[in-house]
Amino acid sequence: MCSTRVQRDGRWQALVIGVGNPYRRDDAVGREVVRRLRRRALSGVQLVEQDGEGTALLEVWEGADLVILVDAVASGAAPGTVHRFDAAEGPLPATLARGSTHAMGVAEAVELARALGRLPRRLLVYGIEGEHFSPGVGLSVRVREAVDRVVASILQDLRGGGELDG
Amino acid sequence: MRGRRPSAQRVSVMKRTKTIKVDYLARVEGEGAMDVRIRGGQVTEVRLRIFEPPRFFEAFLRGRRFTEAPDITARICGICPVAYQMSAVAAMEDVCGVQVEEPVRLLRRLLYCGEWISSHSLHIYLLHAPDFLGYESAIHMARDHPEVVQRGLGLKKAGNDLMTLLGGREVHPINVRVGGFYRVPAKAELAQIAERLKWARDAALETVRWAGTLPFPDYEHDYEFVALRHAREYPIVEGRLVSNRGLDIAVREYDHHFVEEQVPYSNALHSRLRTGGAYLVGPLARYNLNFDRLPAAVQEAAREAGLGPVCRNPFQSIVVRSVEVLYACEEALRLIDLYEPPQRPFVEVCPRAGTGYGCTEAPRGILYHRYTIDAEGVITDAKIVPPTAQNQKAMEEDLRAFVAPRVDLDHATLTWQCEQAIRNYDPCISCATHFLTLRVDRE
After folding, report:
1. From A91, which residue of chain B is nearest by alpha-carbon distance?
2. pTM beyond cutoff 0.90
3. Minimal C-alpha gap between B143 and chain A (Å)
4. Residue B43 host element (H or E)
5. Which of A108, B12, B367, B373 is most buried, with most CB under 10 Å away?
6. Nearest-by-Cβ selection for A103 from B122, B149, B170
7. How far is CA B6 from CA A69, B75, B135, B434, B442, in A?
């Protein structure tokens, strides 16, 4: 299991989920962000890599207070563009509902969780614009550059000082 | 969920060709298209076009070791990987002349129960039920019926937990090998999951009762049903291939009775019977050919939900799937109760040159594998026939029969009903090669 299990008072303070297919180039960027965070040995933060199957997301964030989800997106913006959403502010934009042959992706999982009252108390979603989603490994240059920015922003979120928090 | 119910924003009327086009058929696995042509009030053509690129699994299995087939073919599908593993090991053990010990055979059945519970619950609750209750998607349905969707998610999780325990992980399990398993569970591990399965059994019984109350269109079709049949058990991992029209053959005779044909408009081969045409595999076929193999309590639940021993209405497949989830929960609990860990998790399998055949009941129907290997155990030929490929012809015939008396419906309604008719099959295009744009074209 790709996770750093740190728990306090029987609850995770925060959970960061990196979503993606490791063998579809830039699709793996969410996982790369989580790997970077893992090297920092953060306390009170659980780190998980996931393939993005929707119903599994509902299970993995069960009981967490703060969940930060990182995924690759293809909305047509420039590669490396970072989108950041607070799920409390409303549905994720439809352009971020990435095609999947599975029944449910990330955006759908968030809305299903909202309908069922199973959203974490706070859910932030980072979407990193990918360039290449062909079979293979390794991120494209501009996507790789975005990883540093997202890691820094997540560290700020975890400290409770996210840029959107004012 | 990818798509929505056809609405003004989704259905674009292209004036010149008088074609109604739905950009994407929602709630199916994979990508493809269905075209329905109507001329002078008659259905002139129905084409199921599968345009996901071919995946060449059969070709790249050649040259690989016989022991690699279960893990390579599991990658064909994220919903039914266990089915691929089970048909692969059955074929390899057939060619090598090996029979696994009874506890191993039963453990495989138990693992497969997990996949049936998980795959069927996903389809029943998240993909199929919104059709009957008039919702665009499970998300919309969840707002009005949260307890229903929660029950479905709980059932799916119970199935996944069973797959994780026996398969090593829930997607693409890694614990199955030719000859058995890498590791078998301790009794205590199974006892733990039994508690969750008892909840699942109750939830499955509620599912059967609930599914029986859904409104079904009045439609029946005279299918040739094909499924496995076993001497004692409801078929999952083995049996003879039988049909309601007299077919009764060993799995190794499959190629004498079934052919695959290329059609110019699809990347998936179409299967048909050599002696006839379309046939239907899946829950309806299994149920109709094996009703007498279900335990009395499950038969009773089916009757209470309005099913007889034979069901020819494909829309009622949601009830049949629910009955099979109930059966899989009962069977899993029975197998856990009987479980004694085998002396060894696997038997050593030495390759020998020849051809082996395997067929098991994937959630969507029979999955046939045939491999030829040489004396060193290298695969020289592979053939894989997934259930959705076998159902393509039946789906086309079904659509034709279903649309004929409904040609006067307005485009949006007709298109929507066609989508529903296709979802009855729980088509897995990822397996078949892969779904779905639906187009009704009429003058």
Report:
1. B139
2. no
3. 5
4. strand B42-49
5. B367
6. B122
7. 31, 33, 11, 22, 18
